[in-house]
Amino acid sequence: MKKKLAILCYSQATLNMYYEQIRSLFQENLHIEKYCIEGGSITKEIIADLVLVPSFDAFDKVRRFIKKTDKVLFVHRTISKLGLDKIMDIRKGTDTFLLDESIEMSKQMVSTLYQIGVNHINLIPTCPQEKLELDNKTIIILGKSSYNLDGAKEIINIGNSLLDINTIIEIGVRLDLLYILNRQNIGKSYREIATANYGLSQILGITNMSEGQLDILLQIIDDGVIGIDSKGTIFLYNENAEQTTGYKSKEVMNRDGIKLFPQIPFKNVLENLQSVKEILIKINGIDLIVSVDPIIHSERLYGAVAIIRRFSDAEKKQHRLRAKVIGKGHKAKYNFGDITGESDAIKKSIEIAKRMAKSNSSILITGESGTGKELFAQAIHNNSRRRNFQFVAINCGALPESLLESELFGYEEGAFTGARKGGKPGLFELAHNGTLFLDEIGEMPPSLQMRLLRVLQEREVMRLGGDSIINVDIRIIAATNKNLKEIMETGEFREDLYYRLNVLPLKVPPLRSRKKDILPLIEQFKREFRGSFQLSLPAEELILSYNWKGNVRELKNYIEYLVSLEIKEVDIKDLPFEIADVLKEEAYDGIKYEGCDKAVEEELVENLTKDIGKNLDKYIFVLDELEKAFIQNKRLGRRSILYTAREKNIFISEQEIRNIITSLEEKKMVNIFKGRGGTVITEHGIRVLKELKRV
Fold first, then answer.
1. Co-location of 229 and 99 in the same domain
2. DSSP state string for 331-390
């Protein structure tokens, strides 16, 4: 269900502006309702997950309609850069009134303007409720104003106020929608908006930042940040930079950063336009780690930004730097709540996995392809003590041996032809303090299995071409769809590695053993693909009876296909041809009973005939009717069988049919579906029926 946001404003124009701004960022993922305070139009309780109000006096006027004050968010506002330019054009020293909807809001906006660099004029907050002595004064208004401004010397309309980035992010956090913002280029969205975070604004405004870059910046902004323009002048210097370097902001702002901090390779970065990553420097006797990146947009150099932190804090914040190197692809996105299913099989696996998450031991996840082994691995990581660090995943069967080795262990510069300048850290290093997920571990070449075993034993790695040992603290979660014990016997997989990995074994059940979960999964995938189709009863029965050899992945692919058809009701003829053909060929292969050979069946027939005695004909009749329905892809209920019996003058009661079907289910000859699902004969039942007819 979509979260609901209520926006309260004094004027309709501002209300519409905020609405469009929020809608453009959160799109269709948020339900927004607008409430205008003017004219007393709010007459009933406001029910929302979050209520956005412009000021306390606005809140005070409508607080009786808001029952839960913890759902209120007071906005931080700003203006457009175009509006800021108009203000900056006002002659220096001018006494200027700023007219806003209330005196509180006017004072807040004046504070914001001073923060973003308006310091050349004297701003005087005012509002329509106050009596103004215009006397040829300059007036700044925000959007259209109904106030009588006759007599003013100059009226400067800077446009409606806008929500600043802090408020937008707070909305995302409060409503659990921050991931929506992470998908977008927020820098682009805010390029034309002035913000009180002036240093951050500079970076966002002049850098063509990707999602990952913005995410990294927001994560590490609590480190020291020093920004210089293309001439070397410091324009950004945050509080953490003060604490890290020992220099106060007033001592460094607008000074030459290259001369003031010669230890930081600003000059080298500006000249070569190349980033410098994680070098050790010393400022005022303090060991620091610094990374410097050029700020480039549209092939034009605007300056450089340095991220600095104390060397003593390196271990604590190491995962953030690694996040910067490896990007968003190595974060665990899923939790146990994302695993859909109510069947006993999946509930048992989830319960076992939750207990494993509390441990630090290696885990081996087994299961068929498409069952969701990585989903379990991510959920385990997110519920472990390592959840604040990296989740790094690699498919051991997707890369050739040489490339897999360099990815896992990394390499030094010049280790081989084509090696990246400066070398590259391996996934073991990048997963330090976190989790390394080795998918398809059964495909790992034997030579690498030996190196992996050593890492598990010693907790240290050495890069290719390197001569130094790197200590790593990682948890290994491996997964495979192979029977590792079988390939151990052929020598393809090391026995000692198997027992190192299989400390905590977890088996993910196939979809055919958790058919209770198929319909909930279909609904989940329909929401994901924004589909609204309904399944006809025959189509639903076919889907429930299908074997699903590709498991959840195969089901998801089919639902995506059905959504693309854009039809309201999906019938048998609309199902992907693979399903229809398999069902015709295998005739409900998904519900067959495996494990009975001919000798067992013959013994069963012999025992069955002894048990049922004179009722043999009735058993054969019931099985015969079920077989006919089976061939027609139908399920039969007791009453349908009873109706047919009466037509054929066979004397059998509904209770007898119930008892026969129950007995047949115990012998694995039929499957009984709950409710009105009916009964279906199994392949084993068909074979036994043939033997019974021969008796």
1. no
2. S----GGGS---SHHHHHHHHHHHHHHTS-S-EEEE--TTS-HHHHHHHHHHTSTTTTS-
